[in-house]
Amino acid sequence: MAVDPIAPTRSASARSTPVRATDETKHAIKTTEFIAYIAMLAGVFIAGLVIKGGGTDELKSPTVWLYAVILTFGYLLSRGIAKSGSRHRFDDDYR
């Protein structure tokens, strides 16, 4: 009995489904939340330089750095939540 060279083998048909070999999330620099984070951080620092009012209107240096730390914590938390749902399947078992 001759083997048909055109007929698919079992291993070839098992690999016919496409496999994603990358993460489900983008790199941090490519996201809109990174751009929004940089814009807000720049806005806080610029406001700290510009606002020099008297009394309670003054935006002092410790307050500016506190806001920068809060923004950074929020950004890192959002990236952690985004990355927590991604699966890393890069080994040969899934290819």
Task: Sum up the structure in keywords.
about 100 residues; mainly alpha
Topology diagram in text:
Blueprint: H1 10-14, H2 32-50, H3 61-84
Question: Would you write up a description of this structure?
Answer:
With 95 residues, the chain is mainly α. It has a domain at 56-80. It is 51% helix and 0% strand. The chain is built from three helices and no strands. The protein has helices at 10-14, 32-50, 61-84. Helix 2 (32-50) runs antiparallel to helix 3. It starts with 9 loop residues before the first helix and ends in an 11-residue tail after the last helix.
Q: Which series of helices and strands comes N to C?
A: HHH
Q: Please report the number of helical segments.
A: 3
C-alpha end-to-end distance: 32 Å
**Percent helix range:** 40-55%
Largest sheet: none
Overall outline? rod-shaped
**Structural class designation:** mainly alpha
Low-pLDDT parts are none
Average pLDDT metric: 75
Number of strands: 0
Can you summarize this structure?
With 95 residues, the protein is an all-alpha fold.
